[in-house]
Amino acid sequence: MKKKTLGSIMAAVMAVGLAGCGANSAADTKSAGNSAASASPDTSKGAITAPITLKLSTWDSDSAFLDKWSAKVKDFSKVMPNVKVEVETFKSDGDYLQAMKVRMAGNELPDVIALKPNFLNDFRDELLPLDDMSVTAKNTKAKHFAVNGKVLALPMISFPELVYYHPSIFKELGLSVPKTWEQFIETLSSIKKSGKNQAYAMGGKDSWPDYPFNEFMPLLVSGDENYYDTIAGQDKPFDKDTPFYKAYTDIQKLYDAKVMGNDPLGLSNDQATGLFEAKKAAVIAAGLWYLPQYTSKVGNTDDLSAFPLPVRHSEAEPLKVITFTDDFYGINKNSKNLDATKKFVEWMFTSDAYQFFVDEKMSKSLMEGVESKAPFMNDFYKNNKFEEFNYQPGGEKFNKIVNAMQLDWKKLGQDMMSGKSLDGIATDLNNKWAKARTAK
Predict the structure, then answer these.
(1) 265-309, pLDDT tens digit by residue?
(2) CA nearest 202: which of 285, 295, 308, 305?
(3) Residues forming beta bridges with residue 390, ordered by sequence position
(4) Helix (H/G/I), strand (E/B), else coil: 83
(5) How far is CA 259 from the centre of its chain?
(6) CB of 160 within 8 A of CB of 388?
(7) For residue 53, which of 69, 41, 44 has the smallest C-alpha distance?
(8) pLDDT tens digits, residue range 216-245?
């Protein structure tokens, strides 16, 4: 969900046997007498008889984490000395997705592919089913995201979506944690009125930071974890009285309150989070993924707390919080070194590399027998009463429609902040949706 590009290759490409990228090794070019069979290392039955290189491509907006994870991955060579794993990193999932789609068209995907849950359908035909791997049965969320009955990638973590705030600012202004949507807007308006801090830090220039509102709120309002599949069967899912329209009506009230600074579309996410980290802004909504970034910048969480985004109009209504399962890893079925790649993925989920990943992300563990060390998250669950709402990305039919009409929920947030009317947005979406549903 993080949208500013920074593509960097963390290690130079090995001259010998670049797997999954269609490159010939230096040894192949030196000896014309070598056969195609001898050019590929023998990885059958786990025997690695010649040096090979695997490639893993991933993304994260936290460059410090990417550096640490890239260094940790090198430990695999201690287990299989003849196998080196290169990590290619991107800073945003959007630029990563675009790059991977280009490579998929050219049959040049890396051996190990990082995915978000809503990427699974896009790459389903290129991924190796993982149902027979021992680590799959021990992953508590893997089967929930099966595509056509097959597990195509294993998720590393899950986490709740939060509203972060500075308790010191709330205390100074005599504010309490809001429990309803109206209270949420009133709280932000009170902070704005005080003139001491910007109420909400919005990096709207990057578009994606509005996802807790424009992407997730229709799901929460619907109360249906399979909402995306439900609307795939509807003709006009954006009409009045639909979950989309109701949610976007609430979002419009938030944007109209002007609590996100003088120019929310003029600030990047880095600038917005910088305001929050410097206590120049009081509130920001994001997933638990933001916590490691905040901690690395500020050094502690002494003046940081969080509450659920109160997407409801009465305290008598259930309070639901999106729980997001993320950082899926799949295997390119066309990898030239499938055995070694499978062993590497198994290592990722069974060695201390998995504990490292979970702890650095400060998120929930999804592997049986592995406990996450995330005191901030544990305190959030302890101090707030809510129902978990599991994010489901939608199936093939939904994604076909979305891709055909190039629907970007987060871009809609930018349109709303710029003044485009909700009725205009809804009408436009209904028209595009109808055409995409009937297109062959």
Answers:
(1) 999 999 999 999 999 999 999 999 999 999 999 999 999 999 999
(2) 285
(3) 323
(4) strand
(5) 26
(6) yes
(7) 41
(8) 999 999 999 999 999 999 999 999 999 999
Buried b (16+ CB within 10 A) or exposed e, 410-420: bebbbbbbeee
With bands split at pLDDT 50, 70 and 90, how would you rate the model's confidence at 8? very low
For residue 232, which amino acid is it?
Answer: A
Residue 38 in this model has a pLDDT that exceeds 90: no
Average pLDDT estimate for 318-337: 97
Residue 391, pLDDT > 60, answer yes
Reading the block at residue 378, the tokens are 């544990």
Amino acid at site 23: A
Q: Is 225 helix (H, G, I), strand (E, B) or coil?
A: coil
Alpha carbon distance, N-terminus to C-terminus of the chain: 30
φ and ψ at residue 89, rounded to 5 degrees: -120, 150
Confidence of residue 440 (pLDDT cuts 50, 70, 90): low
| DSSP code for 51 | -
Any long-range contacts for 171-180 (C-beta under 8 Å, 24+ apart)?
A: 172/196, 177/307, 178/307, 178/310, 179/310, 179/315, 179/319, 180/310, 180/312, 180/313, 180/314, 180/315
Is the sign of the CA dihedral 228, 231, 233, 238 positive or negative?
negative
Residue 388's H or E segment, with its range, is: strand 387-390
Among candidates 403, 422, 94, 364, which has minimal Cα distance to 228? 403
Cα dihedral 22/26/31/33 (nearest 10): -20
Point out the least confidently predicted range of 132-141, 341-350, 372-381: 372-381
Contact by Cβ (8 Å): 53, 18: yes
Rounded Cα gap, residues 217 and 209, in angstroms: 14
Q: CB burial class (10 A; 0-12, 13-18, 19+) of residue 224?
A: middle
